Known about the structure:
The complex is a heterodimer of chains A (287) and B (287).
Chain A: H1 7-12, E1 19-22, H2 32-39, E2 46-49, E3 52-53, H3 55-62, E4 66-71, E5 73-74, H4 83-90, E6 95-98, H5 101-112, E7 117-120, H6 128-131, E8 136-139, E9 146-151, E10 157-165, E11 171-172, H7 180-186, E12 189-197, H8 200-204, E13 210-212, E14 217-222, H9 240-249, H10 253-264, H11 268-273, H12 277-285
Parallel strand pairs in A: 1-2, 1-10, 2-4, 3-5, 4-6, 10-12, 12-14
Antiparallel strand pairs in A: 7-9, 8-9, 10-11, 11-13
Chain B: H1 9-18, E1 26-27, H2 32-45, E2 50-51, H3 70-76, H4 84-92, E3 96-97, E4 99-100, E5 104-106, E6 111-112, E7 115-117, E8 122-125, H5 132-138, E9 142-145, E10 154-155, E11 179-183, E12 187-190, E13 199-203, H6 209-214, H7 235-244, H8 249-252, H9 257-278
Parallel strand pairs in B: 1-2, 1-3, 4-9, 5-10, 9-11
Antiparallel strand pairs in B: 5-6, 7-8, 11-12, 12-13
Amino acid sequence: xxxxxxxxxxxxxxxxxxxxxxxxxxxxxxxxxxxxxxxxxxxxxxxxxxxxxxxxxxxxxxxxxxxxxxxxxxxxxxxxxxxxxxxxxxxxxxxxxxxxxxxxxxxxxxxxxxxxxxxxxxxxxxxxxxxxxxxxxxxxxxxxxxxxxxxxxxxxxxxxxxxxxxxxxxxxxxxxxxxxxxxxxxxxxxxxxxxxxxxxxxxxxxxxxxxxxxxxxxxxxxxxxxxxxxxxxxxxxxxxxxxxxxxxxxxxxxxxxxxxxxxxxxxxxxxxxxxxxxxxxxxxxxx
Amino acid sequence: xxxxxxxxxxxxxxxxxxxxxxxxxxxxxxxxxxxxxxxxxxxxxxxxxxxxxxxxxxxxxxxxxxxxxxxxxxxxxxxxxxxxxxxxxxxxxxxxxxxxxxxxxxxxxxxxxxxxxxxxxxxxxxxxxxxxxxxxxxxxxxxxxxxxxxxxxxxxxxxxxxxxxxxxxxxxxxxxxxxxxxxxxxxxxxxxxxxxxxxxxxxxxxxxxxxxxxxxxxxxxxxxxxxxxxxxxxxxxxxxxxxxxxxxxxxxxxxxxxxxxxxxxxxxxxxxxxxxxxxxxxxxxxx
Lengths: 287, 287
């Protein structure tokens, strides 16, 4: 089956109020072209699930698409804090639920394994257990030990970006895998963007690096530079200069409007042109 | 700077960190200080360590701190790729160590990277607990470092417990995940004071107990007799650190404001060139 779609068709398939899991990790291999399309859409009240979030969560908060965020971390790593996340948390502009790296993975895994929860010791003795209203303390039915029950996380949609895919929806990830496979398996519908579409014969040569299996994917979109400004090893490194500009823009309302009109409210071709085009990006970001 | 002349604080701290590591465990590289400590330890003190190039990938690489090239390092050195499941399995099986750089740590060794102020109405929303709750419920040794030992960072009680320390945090946890050591710009501290509270283990050359107490938000437990001086780095330690970090990414952690911004840009522009000069392409991405 040929699962190729356009960016707009992916956005159309996501209803307001949907729960969307996003792959990647902070400033690495986020499906940013799909996220930008969602950010400039009229979708509302999304619940976003991220293990380690960055510009993805921050942009969706900054453009008012989000009602609720489930996260272990949201930040820009070496560049510091995420500005819209920080403002939204401090001014209670959305609902936030703090999880942890493993518990997000466990919640997705519970859905995959079709069980209501996964037990863990993680978060015992911390305040995460106090503020997270979804977790419950439980007794081990065999030995009586106190554990934490992490409920299943069941995303309607997963958005991920990979290096290569075939039209059937198999995907190759060459750098760190992050939690993309869990997102892809747990969601009702997984939409995958890729740097390049290859033939299925070419894709199979990647062996174990074919991490996304077509039985889990609903749509494939070829979007070169689709993770930009986050990095996509080995195709390009993170564009820290763009992310610095983003952080500056987010400091004022005027700066942010300007950023939106130049880099969010434009299609992907124009987005790349506003960076000086692919050649300019290659010279700055190719490793 | 209270440190005795002739010593660089980064090299004193990294060496003190390196000397804590031992055994055959994975060591994650989240910060420049953490990865250099792992590298130095492997070269000089703990040859069986399995050092990673990023938080989640590339087992058995020689780390080289960069801003964006950790995943590329895995490839050029043909490091063994890992998954997030491998990382958390190693944490749960106690085959993992990490140097955590918290925003706050308290007298019990509770740590905070989540927020300043109340979680529901934070004065400053930081990044979220990430994987610290997993570490503080499973590892037999947990390591912390701070480069700005002050009343704001070393406090009587953290605003939020992202990580579980000693005292009441241990109620359902037992010994796994209890704090082991804190290295700061002033000294080395353990958590074997009364009821597991923070105690002075050694002070860096030139640092006095009065200075440390003045910059600590609670009365420190002090060993009887003369307080030992932290063993300073040897010329060999210093050589290894400098060779492993030709871009001086470690210095960024000690800087702020315009100085940091300038250094940051310089490293970002130079890192690809330095990287290729140090490691010619031999991984599968370059073939």
